[in-house]
UniProtKB/TrEMBL annotation:
It comes from Plectus sambesii. One of its GO terms (molecular function) is ligand-gated sodium channel activity. It is found in: Membrane. This is Ion channel. Belongs to the amiloride-sensitive sodium channel (TC 1.A.6) family. Keywords: Glycoprotein, Ion channel, Ion transport, Membrane, Sodium, Sodium channel, Sodium transport, Transmembrane, Transmembrane helix, Transport. It comes from the Eukaryota. It is a multi-pass membrane protein. GO terms for cellular component: plasma membrane. Pfam families: ASC. The chain crosses the membrane at residues 333-357. PROSITE patterns: ASC (PS01206).
Length: 362
């Protein structure tokens, strides 16, 4: 069967992408692009990791140069990679397997990560709305997913991402309900326990129960299969009918130890005449250089506004030992007053009786 015939089958009224045909008849290009983009993860999930990896850019194809605190990055030792059916090839700087454990010792741009990234827009699919790269901020032990904290950087811009780190320490039983391990019904994410990871794992179980497969947008355990394009309508119907997580019957407590990153970004356009291009003597090469920076280059700086970590820690407001001590003291005090009162009252009664009988005082 030819590619054209396969595409025609997909957009038939009973096909997996039947909505594309109706949107195309209405000239709704946004709906067409959204449907096709959403279907890609289902198609990619049916391929092997090696095949998916070959379709995305390598680290060398994405990064022109990289520095941390002004020192050149080691592209092999400082970055780790993984492939996701939804996001493609992803690269993590300072991962858990990095040959160096990077620490922030100074705030500001000079104390952070700087990269000149490459985006070849000629290789983008025709239905793509925006060209750019998504940058995620997370703990080095965590696995990111599409909803993780991130920003999108676009070509022709210099972006400064200012991050802040906070840590939350919660108390477990009997003071609250939290956990540090993955002793929940299902957990398919790597790294430390996250409540969102637990909820997404529970979501996958529910999709499996209804559709017989799991959503390829999130991790899938061994022995389970990802939903293909033919099952996409079932997943969409599940999301529409059971979008409220309260219907999933999940038990996902908060983590006792939680690290969060907040990011704020500022963006400026590249200079119309970058210094690298002005050095070119040939007018054609100079114009090509200008075009390259405006459409295929992204400069990004990631750094801390300050190296202070905000820490929230739960503590006992009234410790149990203090409660026992105060209770014992109060009981002793009250008991002592009662005995003395009884003795004094009895002594008074005896004195009255004796005085009445003998007309003498004790």
């Amino acid at each position: 069967m030819t590619v054209v015939a396969q595409a025609e089958n997909l957009v038939k009224p009973d096909g997996a992408l039947s909505s594309v045909s109706a949107a195309g008849d209405d000239n709704n290009t946004l709906a067409v692009a959204s449907t096709v983009s959403g279907a890609l993860s289902f198609v990619a999930a049916s391929l092997s990791v090696e095949e998916r990896t070959s379709f995305s850019w390598t680290l060398q194809e994405m990064i022109d140069w990289c520095t941390y605190e002004g020192q050149e990055c080691d592209m092999k030792g400082h970055f780790a990679s993984f492939n996701d059916p939804t996001m493609g090839n992803c690269y993590t700087f300072n991962s858990i397997n990095s040959t160096r454990d990077f620490k922030a010792i100074q705030a500001g741009e000079k104390g952070g990560l700087s990269m000149m990234m490459k985006v070849n827009q000629t290789q983008y699919a025709s239905w793509t709305d925006v060209a750019g790269i998504r940058v995620f901020f997370h703990d080095k032990r965590e696995l990111v997913y599409p909803e993780s904290v991130s920003i999108t950087v676009t070509p022709g811009t210099a972006t400064s991402a200012v991050i802040a780190r906070s840590e939350t320490l919660r108390m477990g039983q009997p003071y609250g309900n939290c956990t540090n391990d993955k002793a929940v019904s299902s957990y398919y994410f790597t790294g430390p326990y996250m409540q969102e990871g637990c909820m997404r794992s529970c979501y996958q179980d529910n999709v499996q129960r209804v559709c017989g497969c799991m959503n390829p947008c999130y991790p899938i355990p061994l022995g389970k299969k990802a939903c293909t394009l033919d099952s996409r309508k079932c997943v969409q119907k599940f999301d529409d009918d059971y979008g409220d997580s309260n219907t999933w019957n999940c038990n996902c407590p908060m983590p006792c130890n939680q690290v969060d990153y907040l990011a704020g970004a500022s963006r400026t356009d590249f200079r119309k005449n970058p210094a690298q291009c002005l050095a070119e003597q040939n007018a054609t090469l100079r114009n090509d250089c200008f075009e390259l920076f405006q459409h295929n280059r992204i400069l990004i700086h990631v750094y801390y506004a300050n190296i202070i970590t905000i820490k929230f820690e739960e503590e006992e407001l009234y410790p149990i030992m203090k409660l026992l001590s105060d209770t014992g003291g109060n009981i002793g005090l009250l008991y002592g007053i009662s005995v003395i009162t009884v003795i004094e009252f009895a002594f008074t009664v005896v004195m009255v009786i004796y005085y009445g009988a003998t007309n003498q005082t004790l």
